[in-house]
Design goal:
By secondary structure, chain A is of the alpha/beta class. Helices cover about 30% and strands about 15% of the residues of chain A. Chain B is built from two helices and no strands. The chains are: A alpha/beta, B mainly alpha. The interface between A and B is medium-sized, with 29 and 17 residues. The complex binds flavin-adenine dinucleotide.
């Protein structure tokens, strides 16, 4: 239904995109748009640690050491499939490069810093292994082919089927280089949804053919906040959009109708995150409400060099509000599928800041590649999965330096993560979730030492490396992979649910055709759809989606790759 | 000669039929735009 004003709940990428499209394509005035949000970065953060030290999720346990930098995630883009993201970025000026749009900024940087991973997988004793050899057997190939050939209309056949279920007669799959790379490039776990794996096999089929080098991966000049979020925020503010932060939308009221299925928001309860003060915001008939109904960094906590990140048991503010709507209406999905199964969704990451480049240079020597090009995953040799198989212990991304505009020339920033935080370290005998930043660095040094080709092992530099640390910030994210959780198609509300008169859902927990989760691409597209709906723009004007899953040369190349 | 032509046309015909059938099953001609019609706005 066409509207002329909008309230956006959450100021993450999806809703910022919605606002830009409302202004540029819907020709709305910026003053017609108001955001209420806890913060203005969501999952796309990147700042000095001090800026996040006492934020909402960390209030109860502020950091002792607030030095260094933090970005809870590294980020890989893919121009080929991120068509809506690149369209969005082409509409706003870069926040750091005068005279360029945010898209030109990224393209210019990326063209000069092409990704070509030379050490995607490393294993104790073997060093860099030949990841281009995917290691699939005929059963693996048959099951993957079945996924690729399953058309969109049949995807409900995979309702509530996990990846472990799908490959239950084929445990060999989980010992292949293909799986090690796929799980760590995209953050799939064996408990994740096979439906989503199918979507990835479709949308990322092109990348399947070059997965070991990640040549299709594009990167931004700086962290996601400065290179993607800030350009959007600055543009929207210039347009007169109101962005109200430190607010949590904790409840809403809906219009009572005879059939009880018309979805019309009539009011919001807004709680101040600092004072707890509660205010009521009425929603009139001409106002759209655009809500990001899940955030994978909600409830994420941080620690420091000597303190592990404490576990926060909150359900998450986005999911809590979603739940209040889904309890009332039957077609708004099931937030518990994603937010009540931490075992399937949690992971820990860390951001390490050092005051010199010694560690960075050592990693360059061991992995044979310069910073900015790689995702390196370290494989265990011992069995560590419930099936008694080896798996990836940890992965790191060495960013191009500097990764933050305020970073000093002598400083380095490295990001790493553990997909299974309850597993015990190989070098520090604790579960990763209980590790301090120092423990995580020791774990990394241990892994590097085991794959070091010499002649002088990195262990020889351990004392100097430890002395170079400014801070190492562990982050616990209980919902980082929640969007991959095993699900049925009906578990996520449609971007525009049936019978909705003024409510849209955006982000990774809203259902839209074809798109895959855990991508800035799908977040942006959901915002674009919501904006087009409320501004009355035909959906035929949406950015065209390329379909590599129907491209014969890509299919042939993928078939060939399966036999390598 | 005539027999051979008939046999060849039969093989080509069966192959073409099978390909078209498989592509139909795979929803090859799926109209992506149709997926988005559900999100189209209608005036109040
Ligand atoms: C560790 C990590 C690695 C990643 N790697 C990649 C990658 O390599 N490539 C890639 O494309 N993507 C990656 N992503 C995913 C990408 O960051 C997300 O897809 C994208 O940011 C989602 O945007 P969003 O707007 O939907 O949600 P978010 O960024 O989560 O923003 C939603 C915001 O809304 C707020 N909010 C919601 N409800 C309320 C409420 N009721 N009251 C107040 N505020 C509310 C939330 O708190 C949050 O701040 C990664 C994410 C993480 C965490």
């Amino acid at each position: 239904m066409i509207k002329h004003k909008a309230i956006l709940i959450g100021a993450g990428l999806a809703n910022l995109a919605a606002a830009v499209y409302l202004i540029q394509e819907g020709k709305w005035a910026g003053s017609a748009i108001t955001f209420y949000s806890l913060d203005d970065h969501g999952s796309n953060d990147g700042s000095r640690a001090a800026a996040q030290a006492d934020d909402y999720w960390n209030k109860e346990h502020p950091l002792a050491n607030t030095k260094g930098y933090i970005a809870r995630g590294g980020r890989m883009l893919n121009y080929r499939t991120y068509v809506d993201l690149m369209d969005l970025l082409s509409r706003v000026p870069s926040a750091t490069e005068p005279g360029l749009t945010a898209a030109e900024d990224t393209r210019e940087f990326d063209a000069k810093h092409r990704t070509f991973d030379k050490a995607r997988l490393l294993r104790r004793g073997d060093g860099i292994i030949n990841a281009g050899h995917l290691g699939l057997n005929n059963q693996d190939r048959a099951l993957l082919t079945k996924l690729v050939l399953m058309p969109d209309k049949d995807e409900e056949q995979l309702d509530n089927v996990s990846i472990a279920d799908y490959f239950k007669d084929d445990p060999h799959m989980f010992t292949t280089n293909f799986w090690y790379m796929w799980e760590t490039t995209f953050a799939f776990r064996t408990q994740s949804s096979a439906q989503e794996l199918r979507r990835y096999m479709h949308m990322m089929l092109y990348e399947f053919t070059q997965i070991e080098h990640l040549v299709g991966v594009n990167r931004t000049r700086y962290n996601q906040y400065e290179s993607i979020m800030l350009p959007l925020i600055e543009y929207l503010k210039q347009q007169g959009v109101t962005i109200i932060l430190d607010k949590i939308v904790t409840d809403w009221t809906f219009k009572d109708t005879a059939m009880q299925d018309d979805i019309t928001v009539t009011g919001l309860t807004v709680t101040d995150a600092n004072t707890g003060e509660v205010a009521q915001v009425p929603v009139d008939d001409d106002t759209a409400v655009i809500f990001t109904n899940g955030s994978i960094t909600d409830s994420a906590t941080i620690g420091d060099y000597h303190t592990p990140a404490r576990e926060n048991m909150d359900y998450g503010i986005a999911a809590s509000l979603w739940q209040k709507a889904s309890e009332r209406f039957y077609n708004l999905g099931n937030p518990d599928k994603f937010f009540a199964d931490r075992d399937a969704s949690e992971w820990v990451s860390f951001t390490l800041t050092t005051k010199d480049h010694l560690l960075l240079n050592e990693i360059t020597r061991i992995t044979t590649q310069v910073p900015g090009n790689a995702l390196n995953s370290f494989l265990s040799t011992a069995p560590i999965t419930p099936l008694g198989q080896p798996d990836v212990n940890m992965s790191i991304v060495v960013h191009h330096q500097p990764h933050f505009t305020t970073q000093k020339p002598n400083e380095s920033v490295i990001w790493g993560y553990f997909l299974y935080p309850r597993r015990t370290g190989e070098f520090v005998q604790k579960p990763y979730i209980e590790m301090t930043g120092e423990d995580m660095l020791k774990e990394l040094l241990g892994q590097l030492a085991m794959v070091d080709p010499g002649p002088v092992n990195i262990r020889e530099h351990e004392a100097a490396i430890m002395a170079s640390v400014v801070n190492c910030i562990p982050v616990y994210m209980p919902y980082a992979s929640a969007l991959f959780n095993n699900r049925a198609k009906a578990d996520r509300p449609l971007v525009i649910p049936a019978h909705s008169t003024n409510l849209a859902f955006t982000g990774e927990f809203a259902e839209q055709p074809y798109q895959m989760v855990f991508t800035e691409q799908s977040a942006v597209r959901s915002g674009e759809i919501a904006a087009y709906h409320f501004a009355g723009i035909p959906m035929s004007h949406l950015v065209k989606t390329p379909r590599y899953d129907k491209d014969i040369p890509t299919l042939l190349r993928a078939t060939k790759k399966m036999f390598e | 000669m005539k027999k051979q032509t008939i046999r060849l046309s039969l093989i080509v015909g069966v192959l073409a039929g099978a390909t078209i059938y498989a592509m139909k099953k795979l929803d090859w001609w799926h109209d992506d735009a149709k997926d988005y019609r559900q999100f189209e706005s209608h005036r109040a």
